[in-house]
Amino acid sequence: MPVSRLYRFAAYCGLASALLLALNAARRTGLVPSDAFTHAIAPLAESFGLLALTGLYLLHRERSGRVGLAAYTLNFVGLSGLLGAEFIVNLIFPVLTTAQTDAFLHGPTGKVLAVAAVVFLLGALLFGYTMWRLALLPRPAVAAYAVGSVLIAVRNVLPGAVLIIGLLFAAVGIGVLSLALGSRKTSADMRPMPISAPADDWPATSE
Fold it and tell me: What global pTM score does this model have?
């Protein structure tokens, strides 16, 4: 399969993820109904996000080397943890009592979710740094993705409005990154974006 087709597939997944992130933010503000349907599709944002993340890594893999692989792995594992958290929050917690929910959050499940959030935070920052330094995609979108990811990761220790802001930042970031990714033709199309500084000083860690 041509690399350009893989990029387009990942771009479509990223746009779907961005749309669902925006929908989740709208649901939390009351702009759209908070019902069984909107709760059921909420985890799809992370599902499509994992596919988009893989496409972004494919674009950067040749120049990012071991650093890029470590960043992608952390981000992928952390986002997978958030996917599990979204299933629990949207599909399990609504049918539990408050006491049962508290028991979940104060037990092993809560600890696992906290670890997943930390891994996602570190992965998003490192992967965002990798994309920023290589400058193959628009840097403002990279910054929006990183900021949104950080706010989503720390949502449990900050006011609820922070999560909404994070969802919107992440939606804009992943949406613009996906549009830029979809325009790439081949894996050799590795020129830095015109608005960004060259990335010649990136460590040559690739083999």
Answer: 0.84
What DSSP state is assigned to residue 106?
A: T
72, HSE (Cβ side, Cα atoms, 13 Å): 20
Kind and range of the H or E run holding 46 = helix 44-87
Per residue in 141-197, pLDDT (tens digit) is 999 999 999 999 998 888 878 999 999 999 999 999 999 999 876 544 555 554 444
Local structure of 195: helix, strand or coil: coil
Domain limits, the chain = 3-182
pLDDT tens figures, 117-134 = 999 999 999 999 999 999
